[in-house]
Amino acid sequence: MILKSIISGVLPLCLSSLPVYVKGQNMVVISPQDTPSSIISKAANVVPSLRQYLWQRQELTAFIHFGMNTFTNKEWGDGKDSPSLFCPTEIDAEQWVKTLRDAGFKSVILTCKHHDGFCLWPSAYTDYSVKSSPWKQGKGDVVREVSNACKKYGVGFGVYLSPWDRNSLLYGQGKAYNDYFIKQLEELLTQYGPVSEVWFDGANGEGPNGKKQKYDFVRWYKLIRKLQPQAVIAVMGPDVRWVGTETGRGRETEWSVVPKDNLDPTLIAKHSQQTELLPPEGDMVGDDIGSRSKILKAKVLAWYPAEIDVSIRPGWFYHKAEDNKVKSSKELTDIYFSSVGRNGVLLLNIPPNKEGRLSAEDVKSLKSFKENIDNIFKTNLLARYIDKNRVKAFKALKPSIDGRYETSSVLADNENKAKNKVLTYYLKSPITFNVCALQEDISKGQRVESFVVEARRVGGSWEKVAEGTTIGYKRLLRFNTVTAQEIRLVIKQTRGKVYLSEFGLYME
Predict the structure, then answer these.
(1) Alpha carbon distance 392, 148 (integer Å)
(2) The domain boundary residue, chosen from 317, 347, 376
(3) 3-state class (DSSP) for residue 406
(4) Are residues 98 and 125 in the same domain?
(5) pLDDT tens-place string over residues 6-37
(6) Is this entry keyworded Transcription (predicted)?
């Protein structure tokens, strides 16, 4: 795996308000002389690279599965379907991208080539592509239309390129296929402008010769770093890991700092592209991948955050029979809480139909989902009703409720300074809430291991309303509705100083 610290490039979507990113280590070696205490300290100081940091700040990325399978009503094609079947009547990439941007998505990843090997661009290295289809008399280029739409609407553009190619006769022939693959990868990285994410899955079947292809991952990574250094490489890559299921749910305890010992592509490939929930395996798809017990046994620790993928429909490609099975806005909101709200980035698939548009059912659900999220998080009640006159240390608390991710309230390591583990917020009047949002400044690392949120009515006693383990970039918690005038956050266990970027209370 290629794991580097900080790059000079930035994502096309980078926020102009971001401060200059301070260089840090996104990988650290554990020596035989390290004590448990020094290992914990090292883990606390592992931080994301700039590309990882900007990627995490996006929160929402859209997947667009579109290709030969759209027209054959399949999920996995065998590479034998005629290019003449690819004949959309009205591809409207701008409708795709604008709809997704308006729904809050900051980046779009297109399946430029799925396992069937059919290319959505006129590749110079195969005839199995749009150039052999009747669409636009073979002069069309879906990849270009999507990348142009992303530029127009200020959305990041990502590419999915399946390593498995069921059409290529070279597949299974070792270097010959890897040479072919890297030429296609180079086309995508050089002909369509900035790329924010490159997505490789783990599907790896047999070629025409009955042999499985051995992928040259390191060579691919080097090319991406050379041509698109700002792009994160996801799933079968060193920057972003697959969470382990395709349900839209992250772990209750989701660490971004994990043992590099687990970054084994064969283990990821063994489980990706499955439809079932995965049992713990002791690797990157297990339930526990970053606890103290795990990192104390590690040889190397790396920042390796989770991307959490799910489709808005039962399938990944469009099927008319699923028009009445589109996930509702409520389901999408629940998924947001269990993905972004569990220290991950949500990768939501929305497949265009045979005409080449996002279907009305999908668009309606996305629009309502955006309205739900905006309504829930419109007003931070904690910030709105804070009583500045009663907070002795208001200056220290203010950064945690100012709505700016780049500022933080700092809590000392509670293992050494227990008196500093509590932040108390007094309010001007009682507030009613049932949602809590917490964020750490991940540019300083991920450190919180356990916390409790407590509330108290005037004259009453403190009551626990929510608790959790990790926070990371963002932690969202729902609970029964509470009315209180005093709130406190108790950090029970940490891996050093805590940089609390945001603390919010909301009413859903």
Answers:
(1) 53
(2) 376
(3) coil
(4) yes
(5) 222 333 333 333 444 456 788 888 889 999 99
(6) no
